[in-house]
Amino acid sequence: GAGVSQTPSNKVTEKGKYVELRCDPISGHTALYWYRQSLGQGPEFLIYFQGTGAADDSGLPNDRFFAVRPEGSVSTLKIQRTERGDSAVYLCASSLKGGEQFFGPGTRLTVL
Amino acid sequence: SQKIEQNSEALNIQEGKTATLTCNYTNYSPAYLQWYRQDPGRGPVFLLLIRENEKEKRKERLKVTFDTTLKQSLFHITASQPADSATYLCALPYSSASKIIFGSGTRLSIRP
Asked: Which of A35, A42, A50 sits opposite B105 (nearest CB)?
């Protein structure tokens, strides 16, 4: 079956611009996670959704970052006024509640 | 604060030998520990979960140990193959069972 998909695979933007990153989880998975990974580091937790609600957003670095999951399936991570330090690979994962996490291939964001 | 440490340097192993990777953690008493594999340009893939009351777990050529006294997990790949070359990440639950934090990973290279 289809795994977790993320679009776009690559995104290049200019400092100060707004970006949206999309995640399509595995069908039926109620939990969805966003992570950020910098080169040579492990994934860093950003936010966790259970259904439509953000159960834990403690990893979001500041209020420029926001994520939604309006229908409990697809999620969008939104970054306002991007900064060069936001450049990283943004990973999405989904799971049945509390179970093994399945990761997507990530979106590589480059802020010039 | 909680901290996870993995071998920071790459590990180079001759094909057929056993590769052993280390994960140490501090300020923490996790209920379980996970190991993931990550290939370049891809998201992590779940390999094994070991619970705090389990000393050892095996899956095919993989073996994981969990010593809660030493606060350490060892990850072994026996009869290593070049296809095992990847980055291996350990991960622990943080504050809730659904939020996990990752170590920085160890890059493993198996030479023919």
From this structure: A42
Q: How many CB atoms lie within 10 A of CB A49?
A: 24
The residue among B98, B101, B107 with the most chain A CBs within 10 A of its CB, best to mutate, is B98
Which tens digit of pLDDT belongs to each residue from A68-111? Answer: 999 999 999 999 999 999 999 999 999 987 678 999 999 999 99
Residue B33, chain A, CB below 8 Å: the answer is no
**Contact between B46 and A102 (Cβ < 8 Å):** yes
Chain segment B62-91, per-residue pLDDT in tens: 999 999 999 999 999 999 999 999 999 999
* Joined tokens for residue A32: 């969805």
B98: nearest CB among A4, A48, A105: A48
Number of residues that make up chain B: 112
